[in-house]
Amino acid sequence: MLTFRSRGDKPRWGRNTGCAFAVSTASTDPRTRKQAMAEDRIGWGGAERAEITNHTNNGSWTMIDHSQVPAERSSVRLIWVYKRKRSGALKARLCVQGCAQVRGIDFDQTYCATMSPTSLRALAAIANTAGMRMWDFVVTAYLQGELEQNAIVYCHAPPGYATFGADGRPCICRVEKPIYGMAQAGRRWQRSLFPWLLEFGFTQ
Length: 204
Known about the structure:
Elements (H helix, E strand, L loop, with lengths): L1 E3 L17 E3 L8 H26 L2 E4 L13 E7 L5 E7 L20 H13 L23 E4 L15 E4 L9 H15 L5
Antiparallel strand pairs: 1-2, 3-7, 4-5, 6-7
């Protein structure tokens, strides 16, 4: 079910977009970790552990003592985002609260070119006409990027998976690679992908 956020019965149209703002009221995905664990501790817990394993295998961060964080730096929160797929599979994604990052300290450039919907539809039409198949060839794409040299972001430990340092305080994640939600994550993934595409004969 979709309900329009509007005054009266008329939808409110976005300026220069021609689109109405609509909010889905049908989603039953947990909004918080407390809700997720109360609903299905085994299912959502397994999804969380799978996400933690992805980050561990990818070397996304290094756990350090709280005292190792420079005094002038602050740590950003990590949050869980839960999604129930159409297939019924449960997905838990760990995201950085990017709105708390500070430009010039936690990140610099963020621009990332993306495919327009028109181009995507044209590509799908060509593939369908030629009898080709389309598929995602990268899993957890944003996690495959590389942060710029000396670009360091500090995050609190994932909710529910905190470890404690010698000082008795929760350890901090010193982020080594982009994580979903980071302001620069898309750009860093794109900068890692471009050289690979050029090697395959694509032009930029």
